[in-house]
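Check my protein:
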Amino acid sequence: MFSKLSTVSRYVLGVMFSIFGLNGVMMSFLGHGFIPMPPQPQVMQTIMAGFTATGYLLALAMLLELISGLLLLSGFYINVAIVFLGPIIVNILGIHLFAEPSGLPMAIVVLVLYVILVKSRWSDFKQLIKK
């Protein structure tokens, strides 16, 4: 049962990060994506302006989202995708916890799916925290 749940989590995260990553890459390089951005509150405009002002951070994050999503969908290098997505998901959760709470339910869903995926491959990662 858990293996089916982790497979579903992998595919859902793969689709989400592939779509939103591709949209973000297009927005970073072309100035517009295929999913229009809704009007954002001032705090989110400030955050996004900071990401954009670095000249590379937003494009890098979106490219990592796209690559990770495609890796999750393909089934190759899943652990690499998990490692790439960890800091991105922490930032998504942090932004929605502290700056824009309207997106918090979706951020929690993404976090739960990610935890399921990490738990299903925990034997690969437990060496990282071993003394």
Remarks:
- The CA atoms of residues 50 and 57 lie 9 Å apart.
- The chain has one domain: 2-129.
- The chain is about 75% helix and 0% strand.
